[in-house]
Give the backbone structure.
Amino acid sequence: MPSDSILIVGGGPAGLEAARGIAEIGYKAILVEKRDRLGGTPDEASYAALTPHFKNTDDVLGAMIGAITSNPLVEIRTGSTVKECSGAAGDFAVTLSKDGKEEVVSTGAIILATGFDHFDPGRETQMYGYYEHDDVITLVDAEKMLKQHRFVRPSNGAVPKRICFIQCVGSRDRQIGNEYCSKVCCGIASKQAIEIRQIVPDANVFIFYIDMRMYGYWENQLYWPAQEQYKVNYVKGIVTEVLKKGDKLVVRGEDTTMGRPMEIPMDLVILSVGMEPSTGTKALAKLLGVRQNKYGFIEAIGEPMDTVSTSVEGVFVAGAAAGPKDLEDSTSMAGAAAMKAIATVRRKSAITAKV
Amino acid sequence: MPSDSILIVGGGPAGLEAARGIAEIGYKAILVEKRDRLGGTPDEASYAALTPHFKNTDDVLGAMIGAITSNPLVEIRTGSTVKECSGAAGDFAVTLSKDGKEEVVSTGAIILATGFDHFDPGRETQMYGYYEHDDVITLVDAEKMLKQHRFVRPSNGAVPKRICFIQCVGSRDRQIGNEYCSKVCCGIASKQAIEIRQIVPDANVFIFYIDMRMYGYWENQLYWPAQEQYKVNYVKGIVTEVLKKGDKLVVRGEDTTMGRPMEIPMDLVILSVGMEPSTGTKALAKLLGVRQNKYGFIEAIGEPMDTVSTSVEGVFVAGAAAGPKDLEDSTSMAGAAAMKAIATVRRKSAITAKV
């Protein structure tokens, strides 16, 4: 018996937007989230303001969550994971598990919105010392402090006066196997640099980069204001090492514009860690037999004109489960995936009706 | 009387994908295109292969057009323009004009997929001499030659041996008023550089750039292969002038990595022209009273979580009418716009039914 409900795995921005879209068109969405809360990575990792418009994360997520909790066509299943899946497009049987109890649900299509993990800088090929030095942190750690409007050195609670970002940690790095660019880190670092200057107006903020990938409007929304209004210092350079020298950190590398080695003291170093496929993304891809690319992300087989279809009919991908994506990508893809998932269940129902 | 059909203006990738999506969900799409053919800019400007996967443009567009011409729920109106619009979400009356004859159609929602224009290098602030030198061409001119698998110097028909791209022509340029980055030019130049090396294997190809914005997978799909497999020379530098010297062109500027002036002879110079709102985008925005940003593109008011809603209820935007977008952006947005347009007509019908 074909089902016209659609199962969405992942309650982050892409999953929330897909669920809303499906319900608004009159179809039933079953939203499965392994955590006890909706909101995905922006919630779990305590994002402060969203890139590039500086909108408050909790407000934005709250509105998205409100839209689906108020819609009776969305069935929300938090604290739940996908254990098994059988059947085919139009008629999948998916086994969900919650608190050790299993239940099989019928669904006509599946949208994977299982997201990404932040790169673990313990695996980086340079010597940035994330696990050695308290004052070497990641974009995620910085975001947590910015959310509390309290920006300090973890080692001693003092307000840092010299702060730098190191871009491309875990991205554009063949040694690690992550040849791709993680797309959002230049924008997020620039957003954080602006926020740091707002909280600590006399701080010197540096961003060491290879290319500033401030594509589209990020150029005028973030990159110009960061430089002109907030005096963020962008330095094209390669940092190879972060050392501790007394109470300070020293950043060593090469300023490629000036063509000379650099050795600059810092109070705080922020590693701009990239994206990797989440554990859930890899597990679900395997469970559903969906093709992954060499990095483990789910492959969108119809690009560039179809960003959401996977190698398995009736299974779609939305957001960073498919690779490095910004929020606009994720929510646009959610709409496209919702549309194609509904088209699938309609097509399959029509075929069955004819037979 | 509310209408549950949806009018789409623009028959490029975004418009085609939106029409397909709407029809596949069982709603009626009216696709209005001012040209006599569908396909939009990739067709009009004779794109050869699409960035970043090198898929054949005609094949890809053919499949998209086939999907809607075979669907009776899509009404295609080529050679038509929008003259007037009255009413509101759920019940717009849109006057279309074809061959001087006007007709009013009812529609519940409108999707603007009216796209972009390529920047006209006659307006650039540098001295690149597009209108002075035959062998200074644009990305669009180059694409036309690549489509014919015949890559020559326009001045004399000879095969060029030294070719360069100049990035950011009409983008990231405050003098012109285009502060934004046009997003796709780095990728397209890299794609063309690879194609040139395939057609003219002994050519030297240079790309002069500020930042190579090879975001996400473009890094591994285009940027690594261009450098390693195709030996494209990427030079971080500012070109200020292109001069004619006998039979050759001379590119003058500064190599910012080496920190020294450069003066390099070239056979052919390709200007990587950016995106500006199309005439149709600006005209439709005005006609419908939709808010435009300072560059004239249509403003998506709900970003980053809603990339398609405009300042007018029931009017949505998809693709480069909203700003610099790549093909993935455009087709993802098309799905999101289709979904929200259908949600609008459903909501408005339900309200009327209650009254």
Observations:
- Chain B is about 30% helix and 30% strand.
- The first strand of chain B starts at residue 5 and ends at 9.
- Chain B touches chain A through 62 residues (CB under 8 Å).
